[in-house]
Design a protein that fits this description.
This protein has 250 residues and is α/β, with parallel strands linked by helices. The chain is built from nine helices and ten strands.
Length: 250
């Protein structure tokens, strides 16, 4: 029997009469990288918002490690091990790269974010070491003292992921992490996502770049018009006739 870490069961979401999701079920195995793809307007980000708590479902249940978290706020999901990144960056441009990553750890600090500065205790020193590890993993060490606003967009995307990872989640939801990256940055992203899985992290990734999806995912779920179209290993799901029709109209 599969060891399911996340279950989004029969999720529907309606916006003023428009159906964004219709009876979608997503089951994510622990330790896997699960991709969610589909044309624009397919419901991918809406599903991610429901799973992370930023939108309540009109119908359905979200479970994390067997616990019903459907009505929990995003903030209450973080201590349970669920964090996410955003398609539209939510960084603090006036803070340094390192400070942005430390912000990702505020829920784990002994007395909140302020305990990380200026004289951290032993527990906070461990958080600081973990922040440095996140910076190194995503190629940001040399930029650690620079204000985030001065970084190019591709590095800001890496910083968004590093901040989410600094919260030490067990499950990371990623919303189009490769969007806006250069070809080389997208190539560099693939082994970094694999490294997260190697460290025991489960990843759900919404992405338009099919090369990234095919390179990192164990399972791919394809959505179209708010419904699940097909699901399976990337070499099967992405090659199906239904997916070609959804993307290309052929």
């Amino acid at each position: 029997m599969a060891d399911l870490q996340l279950r989004a069961v029969q999720i529907s979401k309606h916006f003023q009469g428009v159906t964004a999701l219709a009876d979608v079920t997503l089951e994510v195995e622990r330790g896997s990288i699960h991709g969610v793809v589909g044309p624009n307007g397919a419901g991918k980000t809406t599903l991610l918002n429901v799973m992370s708590g930023f939108l309540p479902p009109s119908q359905g249940v979200v479970e994390l490690d067997g616990r019903d978290i459907t009505r929990l706020t995003p903030q209450r999901r973080v201590p349970l091990g669920l964090t996410r990144t955003f398609q539209n960056l939510r960084l603090f441009g006036g803070l340094t790269v390192r400070e942005n990553v430390l912000l990702g750890q505020h829920s784990r600090a002994r007395t909140g974010f302020l305990s990380l500065w200026p004289f951290p205790g032993n527990g906070e020193r461990e958080l600081d070491r973990e922040a440095e590890h996140a910076l190194e993993t995503f190629g940001l060490t040399e930029y650690r003292k620079r204000r985030a606003a001065t970084l190019p967009y591709g590095l800001l995307k890496q910083l968004e992921i590093a901040r989410a990872v600094a919260a030490r989640p067990r499950l990371l939801l990623m919303d189009e992490p490769a969007a806006g990256m250069t070809a080389q940055e997208r190539l560099d992203l693939v082994p970094r996502i694999r490294a997260l899985r190697a460290e025991g992290l489960t990843v759900v990734i919404v992405e338009h770049d099919m090369e990234v999806i095919a390179s990192v995912c164990d399972v791919v779920t394809v959505l179209n018009f708010g419904r699940k179209l097909v699901e399976g290993p990337p070499e099967v799901a992405l090659a199906s006739a239904e997916v070609r029709t959804a993307y290309l109209g052929t």
